[in-house]
Fold this protein.
Amino acid sequence: MDQFQVGETLLMTQRKLGEGAFGVVYQVKDQASSKVFALKDIRCENESALDNAVSEAENLYKVVSHKNIITIQGVDTYKEKSGSRHFLILTELCAGGNLNERLTQPSSDQMNLKWMSQIADALSYLHSKGIVHRDLKPENVLLTNKQNVKMADFGLAREYVALKRADPVNEWLTFYKQYYMNTFAGSPPWMAPEVFRGHYTQKADVFSLGVIFFAILERDYDTFQGKRYYGAFAQLKWEGKVGLGYAMTRNKYAEVEFSLATQGSTSQRRVTLDALSYSADDRPTAKEVYERIQPNQASVRLKANTEQASGGCC
């Protein structure tokens, strides 16, 4: 489409930013103000769930305000001539792309720490509001032109999946087969093992957080149709390289290891592996993860004194 309307805002499509299992993301321009935004267009196969998705989106974003969480400008729906309905989400535009794309390039220890700290801070905030992200992965971590994190798609992932599922008994297995085995566009490579069983809490987000940390520090990836997908992967005898959470559903002792090329401090690696524990009870909370990866204050003061003595400037 060349034009979209969200509420009273008329938007012109400028270019496609990406496409996945749940829809297409466009860069759009507000005709009245000339401001540029991102617009996610999700085709809904289950119309009965659409109104609930829109209502939840509107209510959810009213209670969320954090510097590292994407700002939502509005939500709306439209119907094609064929009868198919679409769910629209208008957000701020993040010029730095997403973390999965960025991980193809080298980054400093300082940049890695910045990303890890901001993602953990944003997730801790969501959990303090009683919100579970449900779809935390590098592609849902957006970056500004200054490389600051903007977490996206939180909470609504539940509704996205609800609009696509067909098998209520084996829903996660069906979801896995449909999107991971066939298109790799879904989220199973980053899911906690308990999510595949359909019984999980906010600690499932902490596992996904650990997967992202591992990806940042280790740069482990799997390739599908020429594209790298960063995460934490294990080898299964008959299935090859799969997401760690899924591997744990087959063998709870499945694990990942850091290589000699891994970046980051010992404490950052330790909290990453703790977050990747098979049992949710053994994982720290998102708040605890955030607190554990903060630099030691003595080290911060030493660095500041060193920069001051050498004439350094921020």
